[in-house]
Each structure stands twice: as C-alpha cells, then as structure tokens.
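User: Here's a protein and a ligand (dinuclear copper ion). What would the complex look like?
Assistant: Let me lay out the input and then the predicted complex.
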Amino acid sequence: MPVRRGSIVQLVAIGVACGAGAALVALLIPWLPHAASEQAGRIDFVFWFVTAICIAIFSLVAAVILYSVVKFRAQPDEDADGPPIHGHTGLEIVWTAVPAALVTAISIVSAVVLAKNEHLPHASAATDPLKPLVVDVTAQQFAWSFKYPGYGGLTSATLKLPVDVPTKLRITSLDVNHSFWVPEFGQKLDAVPGSWNNLPVTPNREGTFPVICTELCGLGHALMRSRAEVMPRNEFVAWAKAQKKKLGGPAATSGKAVFSNNGCASCHTFKAAGATGKVGPDLDKLPQEAQRAGKPLEQFIRESIVNPNAYVEPGFPKNLMPGTFASLPKPQLDALVTFLAGGKK
Ligand code: CUA
C-alpha cells in the first residue's frame, strides 16, 4: 500500500505541533530547582536527555494516532471487517531496535553520571586543607549539625561551604533514620544511626539553600531544616578561622552556642536565643514547669536534658525529646543549663 506524499506532510505537521506543545510544557514550567552543584548539573543533563527522547517518541505516536483517528474513522453505516493485514516484518524490526537503542543510550548516560557523581577528586590534603573538604553531617530529632574535622572539629548549625571546592559530606544519625537533601545540590542520602554515608558535593553557585530532612522521623520531621550557605573560598576560610579561634575561648562553652549548635531552636521557643520552635515545651516558661514538676529550676533543667522522660510536660507526648543530649560534654551541659535557667552565659 503506497503512502501518498500528502499523508506524510500531514503526519509530519501533526508531529511537529505535538512536539512543540510538549516542548513548551517541558521548558516553560520550572520542573527542577536551579542547580547549585556540579553533581546537580549532571543530573539535570540526564533529565533533559531523557525528556528530549520522550518528546520525540510522543510526537511520533501522537501524530500517527491523531492521523488514524481522523483518516480511518469508520462511517456511521459501515460495519464491515477491516482489511486482513498480516503485519510488517520490517516495521516490527524498526520499532524494536529503535527503543532498544534509546534505552541503552539512557543507561550509558545514567551510568556515566552516577559514576562521576560518586567520585570525589583526590587531591593532596597536605598541601590544601580545602581539597577535598570533609564535613561530618549529624542528624538527630529534629536538627542538623555540621562538624569540620579539618578545622579543629568546629561545629555549626548551618552548612557553610566554599564555592567550587569538592566536598565530602559524611552523614550519620544519632537516633532514627533521617535523610539529607538540598534540592539545589540534586542528591539525597539517608542518615542512618551507626553508619557513615558519603555524599560528594561540589557546590558551584553561591547562595543560601534549604537543608531538608526527607525521611519521616517523628513529630518534628517537617521542621527539621537548616541552611546550606555557599560562599567565596576566602570568606569560608575567614569564617572557619574565626570560629576556630572562638573554640579556644570562652565562647566555646557559651550556653547560647550550645543551644544553637544542637538544634534546640527547631523544637523549642526561647526568647534569649531567638528561638520560636513549637514542637516541644516553651522554654521561657521553665520556672513554671519546674514548679509543676516540684523540683529546683537548675536541677529540673538538667534532668529534662539528660533524662527527658523523668518529667513530661502535660500536652506533650512521652519520648518526644530525644535522649541523645545526655552525651553532651559536661562543660557544655553546665553552660546550657545556666543559659536556660536565665543566667547569661
Ligand atoms: Cu529527620 Cu525527618
């Protein structure tokens, strides 16, 4: 059955129209966050590679279907069987071979991107402490903390990163499973108690991006957020040096610093720390709570930190406050208790 040239022109026209429509939907709607790491850039490439293939196949299929629906429609009074056609070997080979080739191409591109994204460039750490930078990411109900072993183990409640420096995030959890996600970095990785999971990230755009927990981990899950701040290299080094200097001084055991570095603010309200969390009891009302518990204020605060189930404020469930803070070093715990009791320290 010869195909008329007019039919081919019509088919192509329908295909181009469908493809243009699909391309507009793909391009005009911002489906992906604006990538801020080399890894996310590669993932975006895979996304667009697959999307382009999908649009091409969609245009072809839609053109044939629309053309057939209009052209070969049965007339209202027509009830004869269709012509007995036995298939077309050449056509079948083509429509098996082409998808096989496309799927193979997608696998190869994905495998290359995965391998590249999991690879952290090896540079001599001896000559440049920034290459690669190691950050220990610790998740706990319901906060993130970030520790920089290359800078005397200084800790921060926000993830500060120098731009264009390959970074190895070593992710772990103190209690239940959490999951680390910065949408602009393009990757997610579980935080599992007792194991260290490595996530290489090379941020390539300055800015502030959300750090989100994407594993349901308890009542405060939705509030378990922090920030990733990507800054120029020298700004990062200056920040790290300043923080490191503070580590040796009295600020290391400032109750306020302990409060913010351990993520207390994500669950509790406490004016002196500018905290407005609503998951746990309001810490501005600690004196009244101590009274209800029938204990002296400082003793009550210390006990509530190291043994949270000893007294549970009415209206809050048992086991909500993690017991992990019992492992705070004594000077930090003392400073935190004093700070919460209202003493400026
Ligand atoms: Cu941690 Cu959800």
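Summary: The chain has a mean pLDDT of 87.
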